[in-house]
Here is the input.
Amino acid sequence: MIHLKTLLFIVSIGFSIVGHAQELMAYKLDIQLNEISGLEQLNETTLVAINDSGNEAELHLIDLQGKPIKKVFVKNATNVDWEDLARDDNYLYIGDIGNNQNKRKDLCVYKVKIADVLSKKEVAAQKISFNYSDQKEFPPSKNEQNFDAEGMIVYKESIYIFSKNRTEPWTGISNVYTLPKQAGSYTAKKYSELYVGEQGWWQDAITGADIFNDQLYVLTYNRVFCLNIADLDRKPSFTQEFKRMTQKESIVVLDKNTFFIADEVKRFMGGGNLYKIEK
Here is the structure.
């Protein structure tokens, strides 16, 4: 089992730049995406976004400035708590993996054809149901509550899910699980433990993930950091801290130098923006 200990990073008042990163632009998102929880790229000009729990089973297509293009309804699917998006060459994967209270027994990933998402207003989903191999109680005791998740990627033939730690006392560990990409019912295998930090939930809980050319991008509320997926025992190759704390839960990488992050709208915290950032 791989055990990763990342460097600890302190939240800064200003925009702390590591690796010469800079925010290029901030675009205001439509009110329909006030609870945005996942982002993915469909083609060179189109992103797709989702909202989290309590919202419709819909995909929101937007352009690279965050402007709405269309909505696509996902048939035979329910948005219990959609939290992240991932893709391979042909399919988009929708992670219904939110589990705030650590007691869900209906976790799943929906799989839809990208070509259908681009061309239709309704799409049919295949369902990948799963449970965690090491969860025995629903919910478990507070010191074992590490079965919520908001980060998901697809890499080669597997889906990788990154837990959002909710343990008391705080351990700073995100459990990483793998699933097959094919429809069916599975037990998610624990692949690794990712040590994010000891600063607590608001700084070191994973809220999103993406991958580009074997580079894993991990999002928390206060930063994004990058690791080579084949070298998870090494320190991050890149880290970007944010100038202020908002509920950032979505990330998509466009190329080796550019990525987008989005945040939910929260009273007193602000948010509701799509940020373009360059390394």
